[in-house]
Amino acid sequence: MITGPKGTEFDLSGRCSVCGHYGEVFDLPGRFEKYCLECSADVAAAILLTTEIDAATLAGRDAKELITEYTCIHIRMLGRAQSAELGNF
Prior knowledge:
52% of the residues lie in helices and 19% in strands. The protein is of the alpha+beta class.
């Protein structure tokens, strides 16, 4: 296990919890799952977007663009997860 930027850690031989990729996987603070580089970036962005969407909604601001970006990230992650499932059969 190696410590990376801002306390993230990565394992050189793990499996991504989203897409099933074998190789270098990362821990995100506050999460138990491990993610490949692409999925960890998407999960981190989704967490931040959730916070921003909530803040915008509570402040009465329009959050459509944030929601659209959040949706795109989740569609991309769903595609990777489904590809991993298809590869297992």
